[in-house]
Write a structure and sequence with these properties.
heterodimer, A: alpha+beta, seven-stranded mixed sheet, globular, B: alpha+beta, Uridine Diphospho-n-acetylenolpyruvylglucosamine Reductase, domain 2, Enolase-like, domain 1, four-stranded antiparallel sheet, 12 strands
């Protein structure tokens, strides 16, 4: 890829604070381990005596398993056991029981029912992976198949009780019909997004071993404590007796937010055979029990007055969940927060299909919803004869439209300005199909607004300063590729006032304090906030020792009167008076000072403010006028997301988000045969994501944004927002290049042939 | 694990002898065969590993002006062979447009001819498929996708052949050299792959025990080197099979077109070459309407197998016209950074 290789070149001058770790573009601390193969991912662990398990999965989407040739599998050399309904460890909790929106029903061989293609129906455990794999094949299941419901037209439409994780299915403010009736111009358009699969490079592996009622598990997860709780409930054991190691993830994207069925099956298999068991699903087996992004069909109706001000914004979403559980893609969320309109209505409806249950996947809701919203905005701008950026500025939301709350901070205007300037947006023709390059390709440009909520969850951390001046910070945080090992350590070093070299930083284990879920782009706020609080607790105790000690040069400074940096406490009002941590501890006769801290949402701030990151993405595409072949030639994004902990990693997150957006716009689509419910492209050869050669010159601009309200560190999430503006920007650029408005993602060349 | 015999013959006659046993597959790089075995699509009882056979890895110019390419030559080695790239630029470009760099480093030219269709109903190992389980039916009928055929299909099979490499080879009248129990023989590539007809399970002209030993490009193939192009339209820039592709090669007699070669990929179970299309161009001055006539002839009789692939007929016409236009304009001085892409303009 040809992404800008100077990651700090366009950073605001104030972003880097010299003398501290926060703000420095450090490279990944785990990078050398990963590129030399020394980083141990879950499936790299092989405790002594480990057996291998292979899944046997359903090749129908609805019906029953009527037969398994267990004898054939058991007779195969090396096969130790065949776990199946009626021959599996008893569970303490019904896997179909639903405790709350974060508890998803699992297929754990509880019966012979098949609810979706690739559902696990048996597990073969053997001395070798090869024997287990062959044993699974020898089971040769027979079925009583029923006609599956596949596709948004296949089910009965209903209104779900909630969407996403507990968000209302229906929201409105003002009278949309009146707003449309009084409008000078109206448009209505329907957009479709397909089912998509996370396709993290690392499968949902698990290596499980039991010691009595204690479980040790090497398993990639985005949420250690939530995984412990789920497994504890299923196995009827104490959560503290479950030890999960998850130091590195080969991608999660939401699919590792909750334990997947096959990971629980590995634990059951280990219990059944009384030996450690390793289970790594195949790529194909990940299309089913691991979650996916549900398909959507979205209808937008917009009305504007003659000046281009919105009079009504109506967003109807049809999406799908499985036949047996609830997750409804909350595609209306962006519409509730992005543009000012006197009347806004958002309504989600759904059908139930014979697929696995959808799950959160990379900007759930905002990704799908902003495709429709940003396309519709573009269509309306064209109707009005307005520049799409001008149209967005004319409807800029000064307060959050649905709630009327002020934003804790909102640098979107600056994102528009800087993004447009860097991209060269000005002077673009309003009409489509106006521009060709010297090779004759149609050239078009488009833009989209990016938005994602600034979430924070509950998290805890421990910190310590020792007599030798070194420190430790530890918590059950997760690095799924976003760079937590580095960015959180930077927060830890600054919090303790020591250099990175003096810091021992631990994370990725359930033995450490619960740092919440690495999801919702909220992990730096959550885990970082907990670290900040824990380190602050240590520094507070240290200052107490010093400022109450007449022998200290800091005596009498008071707690708020000192700062910690470079292993010293220094008086705020007199930088000449300072004392080293080592001296303070030595005089006090202390070997160390330990502290703890936690982070979480501030209900008062949440009640008073809307908190979101924003951005603007600009895309240039080239399209072959005869062949329809599309090439994104430039992508520029400008994002304002609070304080930047590590500009290199943040920029990398924006690149990743924008590439995901390109993938959404041009490539991704899970195809199923509606007759059988089986997948036609459940592999990485045929389920397309972009290759390097598809990725153009990219630029990610970090727009400075101070936010004293959002959380203690002033950070907003950067993981998912890059997707949200990009899909619409590319779709709009393709229209601008060709004059063809494609409303069904992905935009493939056949849709442009005319 | 699933048992099969693994045989590693030391010589070609030993290989042929071993290959005559029923239910036997020859193994070269295995980039396709091993995947199919893992997926349960095919389960040979015997694997004859030919990768160490002597004498099958050379690229050699022949006294008559042609070129012989040993069956075990790796795709990458062939594409980057200086003589080959200069002499047969559209073949080299097609090679570099196929698969991924990693696969090209492993895959052999003989294996390329032998690769199986990517029809999802063939590779899923359970759907009715007359290729995989003769007589079971064709699940693709009734739900054809964009990869399915619009030329040469039958009611028993609508699969396509996925190779890029074979398309320009077919255009250039490449010959497949074969060793077998009855000795050596040679078959034109255009006759090597079979259309499905009533027997989709019979994919090639190979008889039991026969083995590809080499590909031969005839002397005439070199004459197109100044006006040849392979063009591939696909859903992403690398590691994607062609939606439609075309190999076009021309010679000129002054301002007029002399000899013409045109083969299309992604349409059928073999590279699609139509004599009438080539004849339509001979003696003509190059012009869009002339190329369009040839393209129409190449697409004569095309029929979609579903809504999802109807567009391929018009797309193939346009790809053929573009490839002919580019060939007429002259072979690029070097293979573009995006090989075979419409955006691969040097």
């Amino acid at each position: 890829m040809t992404a800008t290789s100077t990651p700090v070149s366009n950073l605001p001058a104030g972003a880097i604070r010299h003398g501290s770790s926060i703000g420095q573009p450090l490279t990944r601390r785990d990078g050398p381990l990963k590129v030399t193969g020394q980083a141990r991912f879950s499936a790299d662990n092989l405790p002594p005596g480990t057996l291998h398990a292979a899944l046997c999965v359903a090749r129908i989407a609805k019906g029953r398993v009527t037969g398994l040739d267990v004898a054939a599998a058991e007779a195969h050399p090396g096969v130790v056991a065949v776990m199946r309904p009626g021959h599996a460890p008893a569970l303490a909790k019904d896997p179909d029981a639903k405790d709350g929106p974060f508890t998803f029903r699992l297929d754990l061989l509880q019966n012979d029912t098949v609810r979706y293609a690739n559902q696990p129906i048996a597990v073969v455990i053997a001395e070798t992976l090869e024997a287990a794999t062959e044993g699974a094949r020898l089971l040769a299941p027979t079925y009583a198949a029923e006609t599956p419901r596949i596709g948004l037209d296949a089910g009965d439409v209903f209104t779900p009780p909630s969407v996403g994780v507990g968000a209302p299915a229906t929201e409105s403010d003002g009278d949309v019909e009146a707003g449309l009736a009084s409008a000078d111009k109206t448009i209505a358009a329907t957009y479709e997004t397909p089912a998509q699969y996370h396709n993290a490079m690392e499968p949902h592996a698990a290596v499980a071993s039991w010691d009595g009622d204690r479980l040790t598990l090497y398993m990639p997860t985005q949420a250690l404590a939530m995984s412990q709780a789920r497994l504890a409930g299923l196995f009827g054991i104490d959560a503290d007796d479950i030890h999960i190691e998850s130091p590195y993830l080969g991608g999660g994207f939401g699919s590792k937010g909750v334990p997947a069925g096959p990971q629980v099956l590995a634990c059951m298999a280990a219990k059944l055979v009384g030996r450690p068991v390793k289970l790594v699903p195949t790529r194909t087996q990940m299309y089913g029990p691991m979650g996916h992004r549900g398909p959507t069909r979205q209808t937008l109706r917009l009305g504007t007055d003659a000046a281009g001000k919105l009079t009504a914004l109506d967003h109807h979403i049809l999406t799908a969940s499985s036949s047996f559980d609830d997750f409804f893609e909350p595609a209306g969320r962006a519409t509730s927060t992005l543009y000012a309109s006197p009347a806004i209505a958002i309504r989600h409806e759904a059908v139930r299909l014979d697929t696995g249950t959808p799950l959160f996947m990379r900007a759930p809701g905002e990704a799908t919803g902003s495709v429709a919203l940003e396309s519709a905005l573009d269509e309306m701008a064209h109707e009005l004869g307005m520049d799409p950026l001008e149209f967005r500025l004319a409807n800029y939301a000064e307060v959050e439209p649905l709630t009327g709350k002020p934003f804790s901070s909102k640098g979107l205007r600056e994102c528009y300005r800087r993004g447009a300037a860097a991209f060269g947006w000005a002077g673009r023709p309003l009409q489509p199909r106006q521009t060709r390059d010297t090779d004759g390709f149609l050239v078009g440009t488009g833009m989209g607004t990016a938005t994602f909520p600034a979430l924070i969850f509950e998290g805890m951390a421990r910190a310590e300063i020792r007599a030798d001046g070194t420190g430790t910070v530890e918590l059950g945080a997760i690095d799924m590729g976003q760079g937590s090992w580095t960015a959180l350590a930077q927060i830890a070093a600054d919090g303790l006032g020591i250099g990175m070299d003096s810091l021992t930083f631990r994370m990725g284990s359930s033995d450490l304090p619960n740092a919440g879920i690495a999801g919702g782009s909220g992990h730096t706020a959550t885990a970082g906030g907990a670290i900040h609080a824990a380190a602050g607790d240590v520094i507070r105790q240290l200052s107490d020792l010093a400022t109450n000690d007449p022998a200290s040069p800091l005596y009498g400074a008071g707690n708020a009167g000192v700062t910690a940096a470079d292993g010293r406490l220094t008086r705020r009002d007199d930088p000449g008076r300072s004392e080293a941590f080592t001296d303070i501890l030595a005089r006090a006769g202390r070997s160390s000072i330990a502290g703890q801290g936690k982070a979480g949402a501030d209900p008062a701030a949440q009640a008073a403010y809307a908190m979101h990151a924003h951005g603007a993405v600009f895309a240039e595409v080239k399209v072959d006028p005869d062949l329809g072949q599309i090439r994104v030639s430039r992508l520029t994004g400008a994002f304002a997301a609070g304080r930047v902990i590590n500009p290199r990693l943040v920029q990398s997150q924006y690149y990743g988000g924008m590439i995901w957006g390109l993938s959404f716009a041009l490539h991704e689509r899970a195809e199923m045969d509606p007759r059988t419910g089986r997948f036609l492209n459940d592999n990485l050869a045929e389920y397309h994501v972009p290759v390097n050669a598809d990725i153009p010159a990219m630029e990610a601009i970090l727009v400075h944004e101070d936010d004293a309200v959002v959380n203690a560190l002033g950070v907003k999430g950067v993981g998912e927002i890059g997707i949200t503006g990009t899909v619409g920007a590319i779709a709009n650029a393709i229209w601008h290049a060709t004059g063809v408005r494609v409303r069904e993602m992905p935009i493939t060349l056949d849709k442009l042939l005319g | 694990m699933r048992q099969f015999d693994y045989i590693r013959p030391a010589s070609l006659p030993e290989a042929v002898a071993a290959g005559q046993q029923p239910d036997t597959a020859y193994l070269a790089a295995g980039t396709n065969l091993v995947d199919l075995m893992k997926g349960g699509v095919t389960a040979p009882a015997r694997i004859v590993d030919i990768t160490r056979l002597p004498g099958l890895s050379a690229i050699e110019r022949l006294p008559d002006g042609g070129t012989r390419i040993g069956a075990l030559v790796r795709n990458s080695d062939l594409a980057h062979d200086a003589m080959f790239e200069k002499t047969y630029p559209m073949v080299a470009e097609a090679l570099l447009a196929g698969a991924s760099a990693q696969l090209r480093n492993a895959a052999t030219v003989g294996g390329n001819l032998m690769q199986r269709t990517r029809c999802p109903y063939f590779t899923d190992a359970v759907s009715p498929c007359n290729k995989r389980a003769p007589g079971s039916g064709c699940a693709a009928l009734g739900h054809a996708t964009r990869i399915h055929a619009v030329q040469g299909w039958s009611e028993h099979c609508i699969a396509t052949h996925p190779s890029d490499f074979c398309v320009p080879l077919a255009a250039l009248d490449a010959v497949v050299e074969i060793a077998g129990p009855d000795g050596a023989r040679a078959v034109p590539l255009t006759a090597f792959h079979r259309l499905p007809g009533d027997h989709p399970e019979r994919e090639t002209d190979l008889r039991p025990g026969e083995l590809i030993t080499a590909l031969r490009l005839p002397p005439e193939a070199e004459s197109f080197r100044g006006h040849a192009r392979y063009l591939k339209v696909r859903d992403r820039t690398s590691y994607a099979f062609a939606v439609v592709s075309a190999a076009a090669a021309l010679t000129f007699d002054g301002e007029r077109i002399g000899r013409v070669r045109l083969a299309l990929g992604g349409l059928a179970l073999k590279p699609w070459r139509v004599a009438e299309a080539e004849a339509a161009l001979a003696g003509q001055a190059p012009a869009p309407e002339v190329f369009a006539r040839a393209a129409d002839a190449a697409l004569a009789g095309a029929k979609p197998t579903g809504e999802a692939n109807a567009f391929k007929i018009e797309l193939a016409r346009r790809v053929a016209v573009r490839a002919l236009t580019q060939a007429a304009a002259g072979t690029p001085a070097r293979i573009p950074a995006l090989p075979a892409s419409p955006f691969g303009i040097v």
